[in-house]
Design goal:
Blueprint (H helix, E strand, L loop, with lengths): L6 H4 L54 H4 L3 H7 L4 E6 L5 H12 L2 E4 H11 L2 H11 L6 H12 L2 H6 L1 E4 L5 H9 L6 E6 L2 H10 E3 L6 E3 L8 H6 L8 H22 L3 E5 L4 H22 L12 H7 L18 H20 L4 E7 L12 H17 L4 E5 L18 H7 L12 E5 L11 E5 L10 H11 L4 E4 L18 H9 L2 E10 L7 E8 L4 E8 L5 E9 L5 H8 L17 H4 L1
Parallel strand pairs: 1-3, 1-4, 2-3, 4-7, 8-12, 8-13, 9-10, 9-11, 11-12
Antiparallel strand pairs: 5-6, 13-14, 14-15, 15-16
Helix pairs in contact: 4-13, 5-6, 10-12, 14-15, 15-16
Bound molecules: BIS(adenosine)-5'-pentaphosphate.
């Protein structure tokens, strides 16, 4: 069933709900089966090995001064938490050490072995497929494991608390998948244990199905007879299977090590587990201290200068996509949510040394294709980003393109009319940021001054017959290694009869436009040719991949966004179609679909 006409969105101040759920039983679209999705929901999983989270560090002598002062909450928004990978042969003690690491550092433990075993226990299609490989001591196909890991890593707890990845990557291809997503650990711990010990550890290993605790018949016998009676071996722990797993581990280990050579720490795992942990603990504490040192910019919330930053700091934890996005004008909460989401992603990218960035955000108020477009929202977003970097002591130049063309054809895109004046007269806070740390300028090489630290280009766009790219290119050349951030650029080719567009070859223009990487992307998804109802959303925040969400009505009358799939690259409209229809990836592509409109977007 096709949704209602556009007119419902075209009137402002209209709450467009209640509306028909496009994927309700009356819809001709089948609802995707969760069991077929390659990015399964993990809500049903519990971490077998995970004992407790310990995030309160107030009395901990190892805590840094900032932590003891209770500033770790602010840090969560400004510095990246610890990211650790632990690797080693089967039974080298990864799970055992992970229990201790989680207790001490409060990281989110993500064990592919546990995720897979939990999936197997649900009897899902993925679980059954994985079971064949696991029971044979083989690696489960990458497409299954990678989708699981990237989906789990994109959860907010992993982003804010930090993560401990156990059992992934297990092949060069898996390591490359993470590299492509720019997911890198701070430390890569490798547990080193001789082969003969490993085999004995596997054969003697027993699991408590009630607590998830790992025992060994001789090394770590169960505490009571009652526990002993319920212990079970793992099906892949026979001597023959362990040997096969060990062989596969050795074949892959070298190639993976090459990816993490500079952060690899080898630890002798053939010692009592407490001694092994003592080494890991000091390693991670050191890594944590170094991270904290890098963020001397850690400030308590009340010290933030700008109004906009207060808004951003109040949303340290990403709580999922906000609902009621069809409510126009957007509420302050919704606007602040998006400003904050963009800001955090942009900060992460700049802190990682990325210099050619773009933000693309198309909520209704920021989508010039919609008549609810609001220039004020774009200006507020720019101000939040500029003030945030200014707050960190950077000199930011906010640039708007000037009038283009000549004579009667002179002018600027309608979307930008008056923008510069609005920026000049905006409230830039009580601390005199404008004129000191924030300057307003135009797009062009001669605007690049020596003292500028970074540049924000407001919606640079080509107009028919007039190409902004030459000016941008000159400006970025002059900026050199300083960050240039494009906010909602529109750089598609618009050739005009004047020939001005041809000053730089088409290929070169497109290549230049593509040289900016997304640090943020958000787009609402609709049925082909409509702007109502919202079917879902696609979101990407640096350094994570693209997350595809489906909007669903909830029985209580509200709505929510549920994650359908994740992608390392921006998905095509076919990828999105397939995910909504619950089809596996890499199928023969269709020519069209409900979401065919997206082909014009991507
Ligand atoms: P997974 O569960 O990850 O298995 P593994 O890597 O083979 O590791 P183990 O769980 O066997 O051992 P561990 O190092 O955690 O040791 P533990 O602490 O338990 O993966 C299982 C399967 O899933 C794989 O075979 C594969 O099929 C699939 N899979 C997983 N990830 C995948 C991926 N990324 N891609 C594709 N497929 C994937 O300790 C072992 C024993 O030793 C215990 O009994 C313990 O009590 C004892 N012990 C521990 N430390 C000590 C010590 N210091 N001294 C004495 N004994 C100790």
């Amino acid at each position: 069933m096709l949704p209602a006409s556009l007119s419902s969105l075209h009137s402002t101040n209209v709450r467009t709900s209640p509306y028909l759920s496009p994927l309700s039983s009356s819809s001709s679209l089948p609802s995707p089966s969760p069991s077929l999705s390659l990015a399964p929901s993990f809500s049903h999983l519990h971490h077998r090995r995970l004992v407790s989270f310990n995030t309160v560090r107030g009395n901990n002598p190892l805590a840094t001064k900032a932590e003891r002062r209770g500033l770790s909450v602010t840090c969560a928004s400004t510095c990246e938490p610890l990211k650790v990978m632990i690797s080693g042969a089967p039974a080298s003690g990864k799970g055992t050490q992970c229990e201790l690491i989680v207790q001490k550092f409060g990281l989110v433990h993500i064990s592919t072995g546990d995720l897979l075993r939990a999936e197997v226990s649900t009897g899902s299609e993925i679980g059954n497929k994985a079971k064949e490989f696991m029971n044979a001591g083989q690696l489960v196909p990458d497409e299954i494991v990678t989708a699981m890991v990237t989906a789990r890593l994109s959860h907010e707890d992993a982003k804010t608390k930090g993560w401990l990845l156990d059992g992934y990557p297990r092949s060069f291809a898996q390591a490359q998948s993470l590299e492509n997503l720019k997911i890198r650990p701070d430390v890569y711990v490798v547990l080193d244990v001789p082969d003969e010990i490993l085999i004995d550890r596997c054969v003697g290993r027993r699991l408590d199905p009630e607590t998830g605790k790992i025992y060994h018949l001789t090394n770590f016998p169960p505490e009571t007879e009652e526990i002993k009676a319920r212990l079970v071996p793992r099906p892949d722990d026979t001597e023959e299977k362990v040997k096969s797993r060990l062989e596969i581990y050795k074949q892959n280990a070298k190639a993976i090590l090459s990816t993490y050579a500079n952060i690899t720490k080898k630890i002798d795992g053939n010692r009592p587990k407490e001694m092994v942990f003592a080494d890991i603990e000091s390693l991670l504490s050191q890594a944590k201290r170094e991270k904290m040192k890098k963020t001397t910019a850690v400030k308590p919330v009340h010290e933030h200068k700008s109004q906009s930053n207060q808004a951003s700091s109040s949303q340290d934890n990403w709580k999922g996509i906000p609902t009621r996005l069809n409510n126009i004008p957007h509420s302050r909460e919704i606007r602040n949510y998006f400003y904050d989401d963009v800001l955090q992603a942009t900060q992460r990218a700049v802190n990682d040394g990325r210099t050619r960035l773009k933000v693309e955000i198309n909520i209704p108020e920021l989508n010039p294709e919609m008549d609810v477009y609001r220039i004020g929202t774009l200006m507020e977003l720019v101000r939040v980003i500029a003030l945030s970097f200014a707050d960190d002591g950077k000199r930011v130049k906010v640039c708007v393109q000037g009038s283009m063309g000549e004579g009667a054809l002179a002018g600027m895109p309608l979307q930008l009319a008056g923008t510069r004046r609005i920026l000049e007269f905006m409230d830039w806070g009580d601390y005199g940021a404008k004129g000191t740390f924030v300057e307003i300028g135009s797009i062009g090489a001669n605007e690049v001054d020596e003292q500028d630290d970074m540049f924000i280009l407001v919606a640079p766009q080509n107009a028919v017959g007039n190409c902004i790219i030459d000016d941008m290119k000159a400006m970025t050349d002059a900026a050199g290694t300083r960050p240039v951030i494009l906010i909602n650029p529109r750089l598609k080719d618009l050739p005009g009869s004047s020939g001005i567009m041809q000053t730089m070859g088409r290929d070169k223009r497109l290549e230049y436009a593509a040289s900016f990487e997304n640090c943020y992307f958000f787009r609402l998804l609709y049925y082909a040719g409509t702007q109502y109802p919202i079917m879902g959303a696609l979101r990407m925040t640096y350094p994570y991949g693209y997350e595809l969400y489906k909007r669903v009505d909830v029985p209580s009358g509200g709505e929510k966004y549920v994650i359908l799939s994740t992608f390392t690259e921006k998905p095509s409209s076919d990828d999105i179609n397939d995910a909504f229809l619950g089809k596996p990836r890499n199928r023969e592509k269709k020519a069209s679909g409900f979401w065919g409109f997206l082909s014009s977007v991507f």
